[in-house]
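Hi P.,

Sorry for the delay on this. The queue was packed all week, but I finally got your sequence through. Input first:
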Amino acid sequence: MSDFQSLDFISYHNQDQSPFFSILPPEIRHEIYAYALSEYENLERPYQKDSYWWRPGNTAFLRTATELLRTCRRLYNEAWLMQFALAEHRFYLTQADRAPGGTTWPRGFEKCNQMVYGSYGKHQPSGRFGLGGIRVFAQLYKLEPGDELQEILDVPDFYPRRVAVTIRYSDFWFWESNTPLHIDATWVNEIRLPDSVTYFTVDFEMIERRKDEVNLIANDAVKKWFFERRDGAILTACKEDISVSTWTGSSILGGQRWVRDEIRPGQLDYHVVTVIWKLRQRGDCPPHPCPNLDVPRDFVQPSPPFTQTDSIDLRSLQIANVSLDTPAAEAWRAMQRYYESAYQGTTGFDDE
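Then the structure:
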């Protein structure tokens, strides 16, 4: 991103001989530009399926095909900005090993934003023409204090229309030990969105077995949370702003095979509840401050499909020649036999 810089043409041919410019109105050309310059997943640079960040819509590095901008100078002048305005810029409030390439901020983001604002934004009537939208993948320990998210929102001259936060299964507190869900609301009360934001989205992701828990959390967020902009305007949600999606991913995370919740060998089924907070009248907002979200104490969590252990070390599975398509119970028994054999070989004792 930091390599992009707008070319400053002193003059260009008006291209009136081309039906694209002489017949098609600007509104139609805009739609064509939007289609051609929208970012897409570059399948030539895929992410590993067993990484923390692989998920639908995030299976590969993103790319924007800019070949169209090389067609002619007039087209370049009309469409250059759209590659930035249409993009969803992705941030990772995570440990470095949970972000692609260990990069938590998009490369050159601040410089690019300043360049766009300097070229276009300061000439707009509102002075607010920045990059389109952002998505933040956040572990709760990074998200909940609110300061790191606010740092992103406070980038100078940055006026996104859309802000999205994704809280993945492995981002929740103590997900490894099956702990009941909890989200501290400090960040909800502390952050202030740019005045340009009209949509704020949160994805609450959980494994399928625990979908009832995350449904409770998401529904409470709709009823009890709102987000405030710097200008005092508020964004609230209602039950019509909830949607649900599902997907299947690898059960290997952080070098461990999480057999506890495998429905099929090597796979976990995910349940995602998405809530959208929209700009509404301030009188519609819940009481302030927004409360923490917890699962009710009397909630009974369904038992995992496999209870012998939570996970098995991936390297140990490989050393023991246990394939990843081996069912959880069988893989566990194979590892027990391997450990017993290794112990006997070390001590020199056998069953006799």
